[in-house]
Amino acid sequence: MKENETDLKKHHSFQDFLYWNTVVAVPIFTAFVAIFEISVGWFIVYLLICIGTALMVYKFYCSHCPYYVHGGKHIKCMFFWGVPKFFPPRPGSLSFLEKSVSIAAPVILVLFPLYWLIQAPQLLIIFVLSLAVLLATARRYECRRCVFFECPSNCVPDELKEQSEQENAGKNF
Fold it and tell me: At what angle do helices 14-38 and 96-111 cross, to 10 degrees?
């Protein structure tokens, strides 16, 4: 069955994973280039920050997500595909700490490289525009259709959430 723009997105495809990781790669690699051109040491620090924040988000945020909770032994979502589920699934609401991590991690990834990007205005423009595309596209095509209703970015209309919860009461999708 083909999904339309108003359906909830109950599963991600490998094509979704490729698309979203490509979209995320543009600002990240732009930041890498800006930092690397000035300091290899700070580049390594930023690389470690990227890895660390991805791991923190995976543990504190993803383990609550329905895409993580349901399914087999490996996660299949828009950002992680084929990664083993290292942490036990924890369906339900995010704690204050988990919400904070899910918001702070991307903020750190965006703010940290600004010093180096300001020194390379052409890279700063690419960084800002690619972030705008990432955020606008995610909001338009994912956040309005996402089944992770507890996500701070979720913007599924309340009536669609209620309808989905009634249809899926006691079921796995």
Answer: 50
Distance CA 131, CA 153 (A): 15
105, with CB counted inside 10 A (0-12, 13-18, 19+), is buried
Q: What is the pLDDT tens value at each position of the chain, 173 positions in all?
A: 455 556 888 888 999 999 999 999 999 999 999 999 999 999 999 999 999 999 998 988 888 988 888 778 999 999 999 999 998 988 888 999 998 888 899 999 999 999 999 999 999 999 999 999 999 999 998 889 888 888 888 888 888 888 877 776 655 55
The Cα–Cα gap between 90 and 73 comes to 14
Bridge partners (DSSP) listed for residue 83: 75
Q: How far is CA 112 from the centre of its chain?
A: 18
Q: Output the pTM of the full model.
A: 0.84
Report whether 23 contacts 137 (CB < 8 A).
yes
